[in-house]
Amino acid sequence: MDAFTTHTGTAAPLRRSNVDTDQIIPAEYLKRITRTGFEDGLFIAWRTNEPDFVLNRPEYADASILVAGPDFGTGSSREHANWALLDGGFRVVISSRFADIFRNNSTKAGLLTVILPQDQVEALWTAIEADPALPVTVDLREKTVSYGDTVVPFEIDDYVRWRLLEGLDDVGLTERHLDDIEAYEANRPAWKPKALPALPA
Amino acid sequence: MPKTLAEKVYDAHVVRSTAGEPDLLYIDLHLVHEVTSPQAFDGLRAAGRTVRRPDLTMATEDHNVPTLDILAPIADPVSRAQVDALRRNAAEFGIRLAPMGDRDQGIVHVIGPQLGLTQPGMTIVCGDSHTSTHGAFGALAFGIGTSEVEHVLATQTLPQYRPKQMAVTVDGELPPGVSAKDVILAVIAQIGTGGGQGYVIEYRGSAIEKLSMEARMTICNMSIEAGAKAGLIAPDRTTFDYLQGKPHAPQGADWDAAVEYWSTLRTDDGAVFDHEVHIDAASLTPFVTWGTNPGQGLPISGSVPDPADFPNEDERRDVEGALAYMGLTPGTPLREVSVDTVFLGSCTNGRIEDLRVAAELLKGRRIDANTRMLVVPGSVAVKAQAEAEGLDKVFVDAGAEWRGAGCSMCLGMNPDQLAPGERSASTSNRNFQGRQGKGGRTHLVSPAVAAATALTGHLAAPADLETAPATRPATPIGA
Ligand code: SF4
Asked: Which residue among B64, B407, B429, B435 is best mutated to probe the pocket of ligand 1, counting the most ligand atoms within 8 A of its Cβ?
């Protein structure tokens, strides 16, 4: 995973709430077994059916920060949604509320999710609609979103922030605690079910 | 200190807890399917890692499975490649796989309980958001992403933060014709698709205690549609009776030890929930969704809402967008909405009881001439049971299609899809835009409403059917 420290780019206003992961990338793209190359499926239905869809507009074509309505990333657990956003050039998604699994997947994939209060999201929408070329900086070290003269602080869990800043892989971190895992396993009740061997019905 | 059920299960699985870091939680069972696992296995290979506990891991094929000609090679080469990847990975890493054609194959959330692998007090994960289904047994079960699938494969653990606790209490008697599906749709309409965010929901109260295991699974299944991490129900006699004799359930002295432990898995008196919701079962009616998220639902006696009635501008815009997509006019009574397709199946309502409820209503009747109905059992075992009971004949005689087991039209990764503009009444869990096929329009319903809708050609409740069915359901609907 790439480390995330600070990112400056332009931002696209996605004025929709309840954006589910089926909209971010539909199921037909999930048949692939690769981890990259999902940009062609990103918001494909809206990009195809709605000429005015924000990401179809040339002024937002290079946006790397997505500013969305509340409850972004609901529904399916597909991490392909996070990969598609990254493949589509996004490094940050800002919303007042994210679905849990989407947010968690983001921290594994290296996509930063920033929670801002809805009034701050509205203010940012207004600013980037007035000037789509407005540079927006998301600084994970300082925990701020800044644009023009505005600086907005955000909260993020310290541990998650540390992992993102360092670009650390969770599996490697957990493997440092192998002793604890073995100790736990030694005490598990023997009657807990096992999938192997298969037993007759 | 008094604890909730979810806290007890969580605490029993903490491998390591350190201030300033997430807890490391042990995972008792990892379920795997073809869609969210290939990249995780690739990750293991790239790092030279193995699967730590193949014996606590179980894989099946469900999302891509064709429901016709199930033994023929999959026609779609991309679907086939994904299924082949799972077969290779299972063989290479020593994982048990129930492939197409196997007696244990089926939707991952149907086979866990039916094999007895899902038991009270366990932690269960799967790269699939409807893993919450297994919470019906008093397990802490939740969906994870592919990176986490890799993490569990490699370590049998997951870093986790302690979730917040919510209680949804449903007291009283469900009216006739009202089922578990209606309960959960009403809950989601009440708390919203983000209402459960950050929470584990415990469903409790006299109406929940009276439900069968299958109905409890329907409720826990859709916890994710309320935004919750997981949903669970305290295990009781109903749970133990369901489990006893299942292939992987404990036996003999182990059974006694297990039941003794499981019996402690109840929320203590005085335990505090961060949020509580109360619902009066007697006030519920059959529920259907009109919009494009599962929170956009109403009693079937209602009408399509008017965006103008929503005070908030963003909400108004969302409702307008949903109605435009759904092709619905404000004020239209929901009962007047005609459907093209009825889908009975999925991990929400593809179990034997669901099929029985629908078959009772269809028995001796013909479905509407302009409506097609797909009946897709949740697993090979459900299919076999239904055929043993003669339900397949009831469906076919009524004009419905009887298919093989899989996810099917729940998400249309296989050929079972809606055409653009087609409208379905579906017993699945998501009415998102394009979920059942590009441009398809979905109304979420219970199995009983699905059957009544198939018979009339428009959204309908069982009570709308002109004459009583030939015989009454053997078990009360939703029992
Ligand atoms: S039936 Fe539908 S919701 Fe359930 S696992 Fe399959 S695709 Fe997911």
From this structure: B407
